[in-house]
Predict the structure.
Amino acid sequence: MATRATAQRHFSFLQIAITLQTLTIFLQAVSAGLLLTSSYGETLHSAGARVMYGASMLYLLAAVLAWKPGGGSPRPVWHASGFLVLASVQVVLGIAHVPSVHLPLGVLVFGLSVLALARR
């Protein structure tokens, strides 16, 4: 019974982590719009990128914690690792000012994150 309660707690942490990641990615889209229209948009987008990256790392941590103790499927760990790789690519493309790839990839990442959230 304790194992089930532990798995549910980790599942909740995993759900919170993917929700937080999805929300931060959405806020990055909002701050990208502000980047184009206001003087403080760049600051918000830059700060948001750090938060979004942290949320992606939190998602990976939650996936590992949900998988390792209960011996469940490693699939969430692979998904979370993929998101962290995509977040890393996004950061590099953003710093390099390559909007022709950065923007479509951001849309893709948001869509994948919503899909991962819906699966939970």
The chain has four helices and no strands.
